[in-house]
């Protein structure tokens, strides 16, 4: 009877030893850092731009996992009323474990006003669109 108890204890210790103590949740698999508007040369523009000025809505995406991860980088731009005026995405980017990668989507505003660019990182798009992190946003003023 004691031998079976020791065997069970050994199995439990081994299982605990290989199970990560702090497993990542679905929304912690990647992180979105440094969201900003940049020009074609990756120079920061600030949040005030002009009508018909081409900008890149950019962010650093970090794979927080111990394994490679394919991602889809999505950006939707909303006007002051909350209507989506632009949607863009890049799919098929693969990040190595703990790799950070700068990604961007081009946007040319056609009207002046206040806009919000929302940045998402998903597992895939349009199929398998599981979020890999919380989204982030940038406030944009267009004149």
Tell me about this structure.
The structure is a single chain. With about 140 residues, the chain is mainly β. The chain has a single domain (about 25-140), classed as Sandwich (Immunoglobulin-like). Helix content is about 10%, strand content about 45%. The chain is built from one helix and eight strands. The strands form two sheets. Strands 2-8-7-4-5 form a five-stranded mixed sheet, with no helix packed on it. The protein has a three-stranded antiparallel sheet with strand order 1-3-6, with no helix packed on it. The chain is globular. The protein starts with a helix and ends with a strand.
Topology:
Elements: H1 2-18, E1 30-38, E2 48-49, E3 55-63, E4 69-78, E5 84-95, E6 100-107, E7 113-122, E8 136-142
Parallel strand pairs: 2-8
Antiparallel strand pairs: 1-3, 3-6, 4-5, 4-7, 7-8
Annotation keywords:
single chain; mainly beta; Immunoglobulin-like; 3-stranded antiparallel β-sheet; 1 helix; 8 strands; 12% helix
The radius of gyration is 21 Å
CATH superfamily: Immunoglobulins
Q: Which strand order spans the largest sheet, edge to edge or round the barrel?
A: 2-8-7-4-5
Order of helices and strands: HEEEEEEEE
Can you tell me the overall shape?
A: globular
Mean pLDDT, nearest integer?
A: 87
Strand fraction band? over 45%
What name does CATH use for the topology?
A: Immunoglobulin-like
The major β-sheet equals: 5 strands, mixed
List unreliable stretches of 5+ residues: 7-22
Number of helices: 1
What level of helicity do the residues show? 10-25%
Cα-to-Cα separation, first versus last residue = 80 Å
Structural class of the helices, strands and pairings? mainly beta
Number of domains: 1
Number of strands: 8
Q: What is the CATH C-level name?
A: Mainly Beta
Task: Give the second-level CATH assignment, the architecture.
Answer: Sandwich
